[in-house]
UniProtKB/TrEMBL annotation:
Subcellular location, principal: other
Annotated CDD domains: PsaA (cd01137)
Secretion signal span: 1-21
Organism in which the protein naturally occurs: Pseudaeromonas sharmana
Subcellular location: Cell envelope
Name of the protein described by the UniProt record: Metal ABC transporter substrate-binding protein
Keyword entries, A-Z: Metal-binding, Signal, Transport
Source lineage: Bacteria, Pseudomonadati, Pseudomonadota, Gammaproteobacteria, Aeromonadales
Amino acid sequence: MPLIRSSLLTLGLLMSPLALAKVPVTATFSILGDLVQQVGGDQVAVSTLVGPDGDAHVYQPTPQDIRTLAQSKLLVSNGLGFEGWLERLDSASGFQGVKVVASQGVQPHQMQDEDEDEDHDTHQQAGHDHDDDHHHHGGIDPHAWNNPANVLIYVDNIARGLSQVDPEHASLYAGNAARYKAKLQQLDADFRARFAKLPADRRRAITSHDAFGYLAQAYQLTLIGAQGLSTESEPSAAAIAGLIRQIRSEKIPALFVENISNPNLIQQIERETDARVGGELYSDALSPAGGEAATYLAMLEHNLNTLLAALEKP
Ligand SMILES: [Zn+2]
């Protein structure tokens, strides 16, 4: 049947450049960029807007970001109010592709203002008993990726989005996602066993900003951010004084600086209390390629090892 064979040949020739082309995907920040790469493998070309060590809370999109997004078939964002700048970028780009909100289906963690009731469980706020500070903690916590159980949901959402824009490789994406999730679950189980051994008085620490509420829930810690949920606002002098009083009275042992934040505030608190800086945590961004937290798995392992090393000390 020469006619059919020749049309198949023509079709094949027409298809091959398309089949070789990678799916252009935009991820809003480095952690999502890595997750998309893990699930998409060789089939995707990932552009990340807020890169390694970058702070998505205060990001300002560039004209290049508009062009990048316009040329993408898939946009992967965190959601939960993390990327306040995304809506304007999205409309400026005229993006026509598929949008995935990676956190869709995650149980959001609500941070409470000091003024609200004190009904919080493992994640306590700085306990101010005065009303002259402007240190607001309230709102939806966007940092859901810091609990690996949530990232299982992120990965499923990403695999679904990739399969929607590239159905030909759906089974590849599903397989990559399943293998990645198995690694993540193993890592989580290993660390749960280690954190379970920490005594009650070694389960509290201070971080630069409130990026670790979900991690604290997962491993039964109390991690208090000196700076609140976003890096946008500086804490007042009264708020810092209240935090220092709390560290002294509760004998909170450890402090942690973050890769996206200025360490000055944490260093000031170290000078005024017995708490000691236990290292640097990667909160909202990976390290650059070749660094110690260049993938989400490496970042999680680094953060959990750093927390344990400081908290396990007698
Ligand atoms: Zn943050």
